């Protein structure tokens, strides 16, 4: 699976921000496991088990707070470069 660093190089920051806002249904500027689970259902047309959703979230949660926050993930990706 590609991490934030690799993804940022393939897609522009503006496009990532637009996608992030689509996933952030409650507008709290974070993507939770519930929001990711709902997005995966919409994209795949089938339920993804919560443990799998949480594993995906852990893979992209660079600051380890259990959510994906666009600005902190972007800063972390910049430090990795």
From TrEMBL:
Entry-linked InterPro entries: CaBP1/2/4/5, EF-hand-dom_pair, EF_Hand_1_Ca_BS, EF_hand_dom
PANTHER family referenced in this protein's UniProt entry, alphabetically: CALCIUM-BINDING PROTEIN 1-RELATED, CALCIUM-BINDING PROTEIN 4
Keyword Repeat: yes
GO terms for cellular component: cytoplasm
Superkingdom: Eukaryota
Transmembrane segments: none
Residue stretches making up the EF-hand domain: 11-46
Molecular-function GO terms, alphabetical: calcium channel regulator activity; calcium ion binding
Annotated SMART domains: EFh
Keyword terms: Calcium, Metal-binding, Repeat
Name used for this protein in its record: Butyrophilin subfamily 3 member A2
């Amino acid at each position: 699976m590609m991490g934030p660093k690799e993804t940022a190089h393939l897609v522009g920051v503006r496009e990532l921000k637009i996608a992030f806002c689509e996933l952030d249904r409650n507008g709290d500027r974070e993507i939770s496991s519930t929001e990711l689970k709902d997005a995966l259902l919409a994209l795949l047309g089938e339920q993804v088990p919560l443990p799998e959703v949480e594993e995906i979230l852990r893979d992209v949660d660079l600051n380890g707070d259990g959510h994906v926050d666009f600005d902190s993930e972007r800063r972390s990706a910049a430090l990795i470069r």
